[in-house]
Design the sequence.
């Protein structure tokens, strides 16, 4: 059974940093591209970042490029999202997702909340 | 960014057929996907590439369309289908989602 479990969320002040983790199990992690998708309090879903199987290629939405860094450790079957210079508009539930063929997200974690507030 | 427009809400009775629409601001060919999100849960993939049923999804869910206009159908609707349904395109980065359509059962 595919499982994705996020951790690392919490309350953080604007301008500070936070690092999210996503532990994967139930599939060969190194064979799949991965992604982060977020959902704000009153918003729908918003793709944040994606990473290729080996970590060589990364993709970001414009609003987080230069502030967020996606990475992965295939030996630990874990992906990460380093979030720096956080803003109030980054407040959301962040979902880890398996990304298929650069198209759709076929499995999602339960999500982790990030609140950016002073 | 490619904007996906969905109607905000639909209400149907169990056993009926319901059709959701998703209109893209530009052609996404057949690269449209549909998700179900129940309250307090993560999204779940239902349909990929416009009309392909995801693994384990019942055949009463279906999708069609291409270009800018897409539809997603549940037939027949069951009580457990109460959820918000999102479309998502993958033709042009950034990958974008529609605002979601909330399905209410009468």
Sequence:
């Amino acid at each position: 059974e595919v499982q994705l479990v996020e951790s690392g969320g919490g309350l953080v002040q604007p301008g500070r940093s936070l690092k999210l983790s996503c532990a994967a199990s139930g599939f060969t992690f190194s064979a799949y591209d991965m992604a982060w998708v977020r959902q704000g309090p009153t918003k729908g879903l918003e793709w944040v970042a994606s990473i290729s199987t080996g970590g060589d290629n990364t993709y970001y939405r414009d609003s987080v490029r230069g502030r967020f860094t996606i990475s992965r450790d295939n030996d630990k079957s874990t992906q990460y999202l380093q979030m720096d210079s956080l803003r109030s508009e980054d407040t959301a539930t962040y979902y880890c997702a398996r990304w298929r063929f650069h198209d759709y997200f076929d499995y999602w974690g339960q999500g982790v909340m990030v609140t950016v507030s002073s | 960014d490619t904007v996906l427009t969905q109607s905000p809400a639909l209400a149907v009775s169990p056993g009926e057929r319901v059709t959701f629409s998703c209109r893209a601001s530009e052609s996404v060919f057949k690269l449209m996907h549909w998700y179900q999100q129940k309250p307090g849960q993560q999204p779940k993939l239902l349909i990929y590439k416009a009309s392909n049923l995801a693994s384990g999804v019942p055949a009463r869910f279906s999708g069609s369309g291409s270009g800018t206009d897409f539809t997603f159908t549940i037939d027949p609707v069951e009580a457990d289908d109460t959820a918000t349904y999102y479309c998502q395109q993958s033709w042009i980065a950034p990958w974008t989602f529609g605002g979601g359509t909330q399905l209410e059962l009468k």
